[in-house]
């Protein structure tokens, strides 16, 4: 499974804009976000479909399909909730 390149990410520009606004989350390179100094969100293409991996609080990642606006909203909502832990410092 390949990381999503710039062309694949183009279809997610509204999602990427929302993720860039989350406090405590920084985009280190196109489509690769970190919270504190750990990987937080990154994107993949598998069999022509886009997916995001979002860091679980206890470690590991949850995979999110991104084919529909509802799926994209779910990723952004969950990312906002999970990023709250970066404010605990």
3D architecture notes:
- By secondary structure, the protein is α+β, with helices and mostly antiparallel strands.
- The chain is 31% helix and 36% strand.
- It has three helices and six strands; from the N terminus they run βααβββββα.
- Strands 1, 2, 3, 4, 5 and 6 form a six-stranded antiparallel β-sheet that branches.
User: Main beta sheet, described?
Assistant: 6 strands, antiparallel
Q: What would you call the quaternary organization?
A: single chain
Specify the structural class: alpha+beta
Question: Beta-sheet strand percentage?
Answer: 35-45%
Arithmetic mean pLDDT: 93
What is the 3D form? Answer: globular
- Count of β-strands: 6
Give the CA-CA distance, first to last residue.
35 Å
| Low-confidence blocks of residues | none
Helix content: 25-40%
N-to-C series of helices and strands = EHHEEEEEH
Please report the number of helical segments: 3
What is the CA-based Rg, rounded? Answer: 12 Å
């Amino acid at each position: 499974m390949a990381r999503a390149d710039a062309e694949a990410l183009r279809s997610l520009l509204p999602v990427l804009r929302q993720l860039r606004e989350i406090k405590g989350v920084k985009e280190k390179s196109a489509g690769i976000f970190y919270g504190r100094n750990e990987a937080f969100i990154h994107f993949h293409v598998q069999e022509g479909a886009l997916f995001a991996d979002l860091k679980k609080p206890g470690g590991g990642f949850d995979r999110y399909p991104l084919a529909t606006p509802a799926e994209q909203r779910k990723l952004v909502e969950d990312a906002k909730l999970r990023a709250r832990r970066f404010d605990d410092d």
